[in-house]
Amino acid sequence: MSFLKLENLSKHYGDFRAVDNISLTVEQGEFVSLLGPSGCGKTTTLQMIAGFVEASAGRILLNGRDITHEKPNRRGLGIVFQSYALFPHMTVADNVRFGLDMRNVAAADSSARVAQALALVRLDKLGQRYPRELSGGQRQRVALARALVIEPPILLLDEPMSNLDAKLREEMQVELRDIQRKVGTTTIMVTHDQSEALSMSDRVVVMEAGRAIQIGKPLDTYENPVNLFVSQFVGKANLLEAQIAWQRPGKAGLRIGQHELEVDCDSELIGPLVTLCIRPEKIERCAAHEGLLSGEVASSFFLGNQWLYRIHTDCGDILAIWKNDGQAACQPGQKIFLRWPVAAARVLACSTQVEHV
Amino acid sequence: MFKRRAPRRGSHPYAIPYTLSAPALLLFVTMVLAPLLLTGLLSLNSYDDSVGIKAGVDLHNYLAIFGDEYYLRIFLRTFWIAILTTFICVLVGAPEAYVLSRMRGRWRSVFLIVILAPLLVSVVVRAFGWSMLLSADGLINRALQAMGMAPVKMLYTSGAIVVALVHVMLPFMVIPVWTALQRLDPTVEHAALSLNASQATVMRRILLPQILPGVLSGSLIVFGLSASAFAIPGLLGGRRLKMVATTVYDEFLGSLNWPLGASIAIVLLLANLIIMMTYNRILERKVSKTLG
What we know:
The complex is a heterodimer. Chain A is of the alpha+beta class. Chain A contains 9 helices and 21 strands. In chain A, the strands form 4 sheets. In chain A, strands 6-7-8-3-9-10-21 form a 7-stranded mixed sheet, sandwiched between helices. A 5-stranded antiparallel sheet of chain A has the order 13-12-11-14-20. In chain A, α3 (92-102) runs parallel beside α5 and α4 (107-120) packs across α5. Chain A starts with a strand and ends with a strand. Chain B has one domain: MetI-like (MetI-like fold), CATH 1.10.3720. Chain B has a two-stranded antiparallel ribbon with strand order 1-2. In chain B, a hairpin with a 3-residue loop joins β1 (46-48) and β2. The chains are: A alpha+beta, B mainly alpha. The interface between A and B is medium-sized, with 29 and 21 residues.
């Protein structure tokens, strides 16, 4: 029994389809991310769940109850806004207490719950401060406490980390995930940051132009992107154009440059050309006779724990990420040979297909 | 970044700022401070019907004002009218500004012009407009009579003054409140709604406290201008229903008692100053504690 269900949900503004026929089921306690570039409809989808945007078509079911046309102040969902939207004229404790006041919770009970919520986000000492006296990370935690104190069935997070600096963002990602696991609230997060979506979610919904392109576990989505868009938006990808040499059920032979290689594929490939997607960390350096491609190192970027190389080859530039083992693996201008495990290459058809996992 | 050039040797380090503010300073000193000082000095002189203004320094004019119920009643009426005008302006202007801030594009510009229009017409013209509407045989009374009702005395009452003042002062309330509203984060309202607040609660507990600084500055402007208004009380209050500004005018040009007129003007200035500063203190302390 799914907890939250979106059935063919759409939002049209005139001819423009902001959200186009999205279906999604979310289990109780699950953490689902809506991931996509700006303008892909992820925020509109969240706003429809929250009730601030009226759906043009489709249904939203919460625990079996149809809430598609319910007013936002009757849905009882916890929302953390991108700007945090704290009440600037109230203290931190009053901000958190607001939702309880609206539910007529008795004073003693509500004080205990406010204290508990502030302790959960580690702000128990700052209850009497005003929002303007807090740092960005603290404000965000107040917003989280305010949303969680009402014990909502669903927590909606609208780009919660986008106003934080990089280091704080990483810390908050870990903390937010821990808090979510502890309280067990079903959570839907909107983000344009693929690493955030991959690291925090149980499942990721990749969206493009109002449609859900791929719904799946983070690892699945990363390893098996369904199309070019997903392969490039989720993580880095080397895309090689390949000619189909031969096909057998479950297998296909592809020609890249002078090399022919065998790949696994579940469906029949169409067209003379397909695209091969290989993640940069799957590329290996090898001896000349094992090499599938040869190339010259064009540039190298030191990323701390790893090196990123851009390598000129006959088939275009290849990105490779190799672990930093204390010294630079190769120098710009050096000739090297590259290979990758057969299973690491994923064949992408050129047409878009929607895959539901 | 601009690097501040080191001051030339021998020149005063603040020479440029002083020079730049000199024209404004000159204007302020000659047009505001000097007349104010002269009025203050004049208020200490005395007046005699046969010889006119007599030099001399004492406070008998002020004692006369505070000892005479006639003047006290005029002051009381003035402040009462100003307070009522301010109050009505808050009641009408704040929601008006809210509606305006919720409008989009073309409608907003149209209604902004409608709200600002009173400022484009001379106060005297508008006051005459009101007197034509409100007079004994004015439009409203004729309409009442046509419907078979008895005519009502509206002109030359404090009601007429309040109505006309509200009409004139409304833009001074709407604009500061509107500015305050535009600074608000619209998702704050959504946040309150998502926490089960009703629309009315959002207004009362979320919006109103945040636009309080706007209401505060708006009401200071409206109160100050209403308490010293001259044309509207003069034209709609008539000769008998006096406010302070009209009394000053009468003392100067009617009884030619300039020293008494000057002292009434000074008392009005000080009373206005005290009321506005107290009000500002009380509210601003409350606001700055929370909104910063």
